[in-house]
Amino acid sequence: MTTIGLIRHGSTLWNKEGRIQGHTDNPLDEEGLRQAAAIAERLRGEEWDYLYSSDLLRAVQTAEVISERLGIPVTGLVPGIREMNGGLIEGTTEEERVERWGSGWKSIDMELESDESGQERGSRAIEDIAARHPGNKILVVSHGAILRSTLRRLVPGLDVTVLLKNTSITHVVKDGNGWTCALYNCVSHIDAERS
């Protein structure tokens, strides 16, 4: 049985502004660094063998905080789990999109990466990581949209309509019958920090 903990990166300024990030290489903001420390502290009480990250800065910074706290080196940066390409809308807010292209902008070809492409790319990357470390527990730091697309392919029928929160963790488990989801979008470490 192979367990993968899928973690969305900590928050960025663009997250707060509602801007599409896609492949834009933004850093974590102060809150994002605190969120990364909170997930790292939570994970410290668990057993994990490997740690991978998307190659985008906000994921790498999150992974580095986890790596330092857990004493696990970042095993590799994986372009296959970088965020989905936002095409022409990267860097824009909803208000700016309506202003620029009108309220029907979603019906225009904005050169966005398709969900099908994200499902294929992300699931292949996760399958490759799992094949490299069978029977181990592996953390993977990535991004909201690509993780949801990946989950649609790995665990068909899983309800992924709820958007993944910053530094949420989702557990997927692979055994002889395929993949199952044991935990989705858990942010108890953030909730505990607030109380």
TrEMBL record:
Tell me the keywords, alphabetical order: Kinase, Transferase
UniProt keyword annotation of Kinase present: yes
User: Which SMART domains does the protein's record reference?
Assistant: PGAM
* Family annotation (SUPFAM superfamilies): Phosphoglycerate mutase-like
Q: Which CDD domains match?
A: HP_PGM_like
Which Gene3D superfamilies does the record match to this protein?
Answer: Phosphoglycerate mutase-like
Q: Which Gene Ontology terms cover its molecular function?
A: kinase activity
Q: Which Pfam families match?
A: His_Phos_1
PANTHER family (alphabetical): BROAD-SPECIFICITY PHOSPHATASE YOR283W-RELATED (PTHR48100), HISTIDINE PHOSPHATASE FAMILY PROTEIN-RELATED (PTHR48100:SF1)
Protein name as annotated: Phosphoglycerate kinase
What's the source species for this entry? Paenibacillus helianthi
